[in-house]
Each structure stands twice: as structure tokens, then as C-alpha cells.
Amino acid sequence: MARERETERENDECRPPIPAALVMSRVVGDVLGPFTPTADLRLLTSDGSIVFNGTSLRPSNVAAPPRLHIAPHHHFQGFYTLVMVDADAPNPSNPHFKEYLHWLVTDIPAAESSSGSGNEMVRYESPKPTMGIHRIVLVVFQQSRGRGRAVTAPQWRRNFTTREFSEANCLGSPIAALYYNCQRQNGTGGRRPPTLR
Fold it and tell me: What average pLDDT does the segment 105-111 reach?
């Protein structure tokens, strides 16, 4: 029993932490619950720019679907599901449409690990904020039931809930997530840094 607890503690220490940017930006909390990343997610805009957590982009940067690369920490032979949502729709002061679903891709083969090789269940709709700075969140789940059977498309884009979607489709916790900030094309200013409570 003591040895099992010690092994569990060692495993917890070996798990990669949730990226601090996801916690500080309240992506973890507003969109996702705590999770243990088991893959790295790399996002490239159509012009080839690499996007990191918290990168600021304009609608022109994300007019076309981004290119993604999913790199699992351990060997995986299966499929992924990608969800892309706006956590601040229609505006950060009154996000009554949150989450707004911008993109849903299923059956992404682990062997290819890019969104272009999956089944686009909800067509990509580029973010076009009209007010404020929006957190656009991309989340990757590992499908548990194989190709074509794991995920059902939602009925609407507004008031989509990533957590409920994951639960309804038996996807479990995310394996990777990334977010960027997006504001209107000619917008100015920036997101205020989070305050500690």
C-alpha cells in the first residue's frame, strides 16, 4: 500500500504540468478543467507563423484554417478530435454566447497528426471579434472508440460547452490545448493581465 502511494506520487511528479499561460488566462476554469497534457500542440497560421499560448492575432492572420501538429508524449495508434472555441463571444464584458464553436475536426489519424487529415464535422469559421480581445482556444482529445464512431456533431455553434461535449462523446480529459488572443482588425489595446484573488 505504501509502495503504491509512493509510485503514484512519483508518477504525479513526472507528469508535465498544465502550461501556466492556460491557467493565468483562465482558459483552465472558463473552458477546461484541470488536465494532464500528454501531447504537444503546435499551431501555424496560413503564412507559416508559429502561434504560442497568448499570441495576439488579427482576423487576417486566421482567415484560413490554421495548420496543427499533434505530438503525443507516448506512442499512440488511434484518432484525435480537435475543438476550437471563442471563450469570450460576443465580447469579453458580456460573453453570453460562450463558448462559440469555430471548428470541429474528428478522426485525425495519430500517424498523420494534422487537422487537414481529419473529418471536418463543423466547418472552420474564422474568428472576427467586433469588440474586445477574445481568447480563441484549441483543444485536442484522444478518441476512445476509433474512426467514425466516437463523436457526434453539435446542433449549434453558440453556447457550445467543451466540457459537456467531451463528456457526451466519451472523450475524457484533453491531451493538449493552446490559446491565442484575437481582436478586430483595426483594434487597439491589450488584454489586462489577470489579477490574483
Answer: 88
